[in-house]
Amino acid sequence: MLTQVIKHLDVFMIANLFVLALVVAIVIDRAIYFLGRGHINTKAFLEQIKRLLAANNIDRAKKLCDASSAPVARVAKAGLARAHKGEAAVAQSIEETMVDVTPDVKQRIGALWSFANIATLLGLLGTITGLIATFNAVAFAAPAERQTRLSAGIATAMYHTAIGLFIAVLCMIAHLILSAASKKVMGDLESFSLRLENLLGEGGGAAAGAAAPSDER
């Protein structure tokens, strides 16, 4: 299959292979994000913060947040930083940070749908131009060569269609999987932010207030 694709390389095929490379790069980047730097167990993380606040150790709680670049840690740090200023300040800080981290979670996922359309259209362009070139060549070819040139030209056109559709399907599958992953992260983040607000509003705020003077010095 690969040797046949290389055999029928032209500008449209190269363009589609470039699109494929971009799609693979996006999928790898997002997979690393969702499985690595963007991943954290929100329930366990919140429990750790609860224990630290109960021990009146807000500085350790902030350092715990600094240890991770996950959106949940950034939201937690924003809430903890304003905990001594009251519930309204905590809620505002968390909401602002949620707005900041949302693009990081959804980054480049929407582009996959556009790449699916681009790959399909590039495949169609390659098919049409290939058929046009084939029919022109057949029209001026010797009778003995017409069948061979027609078969080769149609094969080239069909390879363009196949590659375009393959990349489009790959983009759609990747978009579905990554969109589901981003929605899960956002759902966990929203749930965590609400629980953190309640925690800081009920008992954590008092602990933060006690720690605030030492922070300001």
Task: Explain what this protein looks like in three dimensions.
With 217 residues, the protein is mostly helical. It has one domain (2-212). It is built from eight helices and no strands. It has helices spanning 2-7, 11-37, 42-54, 58-66, 71-81, 87-106, 111-139, 143-216. The radius of gyration is 28 Å and the shape is rod-shaped. The model is unreliable at 210-217 (pLDDT under 50).
Cα-based radius of gyration, to the nearest Å: 28 Å
Largest sheet: none
What is the helix content?
A: over 70%
Number of helices: 8
Question: How many discrete structural domains?
Answer: 1
Q: Give the termini distance in whole angstroms.
A: 69 Å
Helices and strands: which structural class? mainly alpha
**Count of distinct strands:** 0
**Poorly predicted ranges:** 210-217
Overall residue-averaged pLDDT value: 84
Strand and helix order: HHHHHHHH
Oligomer: single chain
Proportion of residues in β-strands: under 5%
The coarse silhouette is: rod-shaped
Short description:
Helix content is about 85%, strand content about 0%. The chain is mostly helical and about 220 residues long. It has one domain (about 1-210).
